[in-house]
Amino acid sequence: MIIIGAKGFAKELLEIAAQNGELENLAFYDDISPDMPAILYGRFPVLRNEASVRKYFAETDPRFTIGIGNPLLRKKMYDLFTGWGGQCTATISRQAEIGSFSAAVGEGCNILSGAKISNGASIGKACIVYYNSIITHDVTAGDFVEISPGAVLLGHCHIGDYTHVGGGAIVLPNLTVGKHVKIAAGAVVTKDVPDHVTVAGVPAVIKNNPVTNG
Prior knowledge:
It is a single chain. 16% of the residues lie in helices and 28% in strands. The protein has three helices and 25 strands. It has helices at 9-19, 50-59, 71-83; strands at residues 2-4, 27-29, 39-40, 44-47, 63-66, 87-88, 91-92, 97-98, 104-105, 110-111, 116-117, 122-123, 128-129, 134-135, 140-141, 146-147, 152-153, 158-159, 164-165, 170-171, 176-177, 182-183, 188-189, 198-200, 205-208.
């Protein structure tokens, strides 16, 4: 498998791969860091260009996962690497808890240690669910959503595509949060949130408008 990126969040995914016994033939991809060694941690090759990725997919393993934060960058990498022939693959820590009944995790999601996803919850494509976040029953999250450490999403709330839920934020039950929203760390969302805004505070209010989608 290729982990896209070789710094920051990519190192979190390396630990999941280690937990899951998936280090054989593991590689990283980084085409922007001139100081990056050719071999990371003395073991894992760092691929640099399209040709090397296509060769890896054809000859070694078609799977990749996205070791980069930022919902829009993740979408860009998803499109690029699937276009090169890759299969976006979920990385799920053995220390995460996922409900046994109708809990759904989309392709390419990254679920880190301590995350809890309850029965009936549905997480879309290529989302990040960080350490110790809690997603309770019947929550839905769209594609490329980032849920930061300690965030709590309560029953039947919906989080739109490309939205970032900050660390320790809480979204109360039965609410709808739009697309391309940024929920600040520690915010408590008590009412529906429209697309393309940032909300912060307790209770959360709109701080600026709009948030551009790139």
